[in-house]
Structures are given as C-alpha cells and as structure tokens.
Amino acid sequence: MNMEMENLKKQLGSQNYIHDDELVVTLFVSLKLGRPLLIEGAAGVGKTEVAKAMAGALERPLVRLQCYEGLDETKALYEWNYQKQLLSIQVHMNSEQNNPEAFTHSLFGDEYLLERPLLRSIRSHEPVVLLIDEIDKADEEFEAFLLELLSDFQVSIPELGTITAKTRPFVVLTSNNTRPLSDALKRRCAYLYIGYPTVEKEVKIIGARLPGVNDALALQVAEAVRYLRSSEAVVKKPSIAETLDWISALETLGISELDRKAAANTIGFVLKNNEDIEGILDDDGFDRLFD
C-alpha cells in the first residue's frame, strides 16, 4: 500500500473500525476518484458503519439520508418554508410596495429555502460524507432522481436552476438487496459487498467495541453467532450489533463461559423473533455447541 492508503488505514483504525485490505483499497480509490460508493450486503453487517468510520477518519461531518418507501425530493433535497412565505405575503399586502413581480421572485430565495440532506451536502462549504442509507427501500423514481447528483454532483431546483456542489461530498450508498438497483445507478458507483464477518474478524470487532471483554467468551459468542447465521432454523440472521448486545448481557450477568443454560436465558439479546428462538432452542446442532 502507498503512504496515503496507509494513512487512511490508520485513520480507520483510530475509529475502532475493523477492516480488511479490500475495503481500504475500495475506499481509497473511491475517495481519490471522487466516485460514489455503493455497499451491498445483508442487514447488520456494518455497511452504515463504513460511512460513520469514514466521516471520523476524514474529520468530516456526516450527513445522513435514511431512505424509505415514498421518499421524495421535498424530504431529501429541499422544501420551501411556506409559513415564512405566507407571513411575508401578509406583510407585503399591508405595505405600500407595488412591485408584485419582484416580490414574488424574492419569495423563492435562500431566505425561504429549507435544506434537506442532499442539498445540504452539496452546498456545504466544507466537504462532508453523505450517507444515503438503504437506497433499496426507496422507490425506483427516487433512485432515478439521484442520478444527476451521483454523476455530476449537482441538482436542479425549478425556482433556482442548477446548483453545483461547492465541495464534493464522499457519497456512500447502502443496500440490503430487498430489490434490484438499476444499472444506471450502479454505473455511477464503485461497488463493495460486505458479508457477515468470519469468527476471527467478529472477535476483533467485539474487542474493538467492548474493550476489556473476556477473550474466551468473545470467541464462544462469535462461534455461536456463526452457527445461528448458518442455521435454517433462524430466519432473521443476527447482526453484528446483536452479537455485541449478547456479549454485553452475558458480561453484565457475570458470565465468563457460554454454556447451554446461559445461552437459553439470554438468547433474546441476539435473536429478536419468537419463531427463531423456539426453532434454535429445539435444534440439536445448537445444543452440540456446548458439549
């Protein structure tokens, strides 16, 4: 790795983000080329944490847009402050001013503009990390709306015209693969897939997030979570955050060794679905973990 890449690696390490070389290379090249980065993977594998870690590593503000069905540009890009506009209209009507055309034009200026995450990120005087989280939850129409921003780092507002980025944000889009994304969006992005961590990596994550944790317990929990993720009895696979919840619960109870009883008593910290819990507690393979 060159010196700049090594520095990025160290900066990510300072954020307690456990990473591998592929991740660092992809982040570094995306950053140098100014390309948005699309990260796909199952829910809970740490996709959002990449953006948070990059914001901390680069010492940039994090601007987050959480996507959902029905999201449109008034929530993502901008909105006019209608109450302030109405108040100005009332004041104008009670005044002696007689230039309605100029007044109407003035109602659509910066004074009345409410910035939403996308507009805030490109109008920022200092570069930011823009996180567009769970883009697959948004409608295809909104995905198409994003293309101008992702390709040219500009947006179009009818009343103001085209607004070009003052500084270029580092854009991270995440997807849980709930629907296929368009080829047009993917062409504009670098791509990274994040899977569930290996046992060894998850032990490192536990150690980074929970300093002082019992090493033997961390390994036992990581191995148990690996089994839960691979088991057909579990539909909702546990995330890394739920791994951390589980080991925190065990340590709170003063448990230093994960046995069958301790696992059964605390399973609700790692599995959040009753059918999954019942299925795994009846699973002979899960029992054999504690033999």
Write the layout of secondary structure elements.
Layout: H1 3-14, H2 21-33, E1 37-40, H3 47-58, E2 62-66, H4 73-76, E3 78-80, H5 82-93, H6 100-106, E4 113-115, H7 117-123, E5 129-133, H8 140-145, H9 147-152, E6 154-157, E7 161-164, E8 170-175, H10 183-187, E9 190-193, H11 199-209, H12 215-230, H13 240-252, H14 260-266, H15 274-281, H16 284-288
Parallel strand pairs: 1-8, 1-9, 2-5, 5-8
Antiparallel strand pairs: 3-4, 6-7
Helix pairs in contact: 1-3, 11-12, 11-13
What characteristics describe this protein?
single chain, 291 residues, alpha/beta, Rossmann fold, five-stranded parallel beta sheet, two-stranded antiparallel ribbon, 16 helices, 9 strands, 49% helix
Specify the overall morphology.
Answer: elongated
How many domains in all?
Answer: 3
Q: What CATH architecture label of the largest domain applies?
A: 3-Layer(aba) Sandwich
Rounded to an integer, what's the Rg over CA atoms? 24 Å
Assign the structural class, choosing from mainly alpha, mainly beta, alpha/beta, alpha+beta, or little secondary structure: alpha/beta
Strands across the major sheet, in which order?
2-5-8-1-9
Write out the CATH superfamily name of the largest domain: P-loop containing nucleotide triphosphate hydrolases
Q: Determine the N-to-C terminus distance.
A: 44 Å
Number of helices: 16
N-to-C series of helices and strands: HHEHEHEHHEHEHHEEEHEHHHHHH
What CATH calls the topology of the largest domain is: Rossmann fold
Query: Main sheet, how many strands, which sense, barrel?
Result: 5 strands, parallel
Provide the CATH top-level class of the largest domain: Alpha Beta
> pLDDT under 50 segments (min length 5)?
none
Beta-strand proportion: 5-15%
Average pLDDT reading: 91
Q: What's the number of extended β-strand segments?
A: 9
What helical percentage do the residues reach? 40-55%
